[in-house]
């Protein structure tokens, strides 16, 4: 299973344990919106030359890292910005 799917599921699980259905739906809707923006204009978000990836902020706490390939956009990981950035492996 791709890392993005695993980390997405982890975010949902955390929200289910700690927040209401309203917050979960808000996160799901915002994620869909960001992925739609990425698919229409993948270069609009912050690019890291060092890691050769883009970062789209989904919420204040969660960012989505992705890479543009020749014929596809690869979603890499949903990252909690409160974590140590040195642990981010993309």
Ordered list of secondary-structure elements with their pairings:
Blueprint: H1 3-18, H2 21-40, E1 46-48, E2 53-57, E3 62-68, E4 73-80
Antiparallel strand pairs: 1-2, 2-3, 3-4
Tell me what the structure shows.
By secondary structure, the chain is of the alpha+beta class. The protein has one domain: RelE-like (YaeB-like fold, 2-Layer Sandwich), CATH 3.30.2310. Helices cover 40% and strands 26% of the residues. It contains two helices and four strands. The chain has a four-stranded antiparallel sheet with strand order 1-2-3-4. It is globular and about 40 Å long.
Keywords:
90 residues; alpha+beta; YaeB-like fold; four-stranded antiparallel β-sheet; 2 helices; 4 strands; globular; Plasmid stabilization protein; RelE/ParE_toxin_dom_sf
Q: How many DSSP-defined strands?
A: 4
Estimate the strand proportion. Answer: 25-35%
Under CATH at level 1, the class stands as Alpha Beta
Instruction: Report the sheet with the most strands, covering strand number, pairing sense and barrel closure.
Output: 4 strands, antiparallel
- CATH fold label: YaeB-like fold
Q: Give the overall form.
A: globular
Number of helices: 2
Task: Please tell me how large the radius of gyration is.
Answer: 13 Å
- Parts with pLDDT < 50 across at least 5 consecutive residues: none
The proportion of residues forming helix, as a percent range, comes to 40-55%
Span from first to last CA? Answer: 15 Å
**Helix and strand composition category:** alpha+beta
Average pLDDT for all residues: 95
* Strand/helix succession: HHEEEE
Strands of the biggest beta sheet: in what spatial order? 1-2-3-4
Number of domains: 1
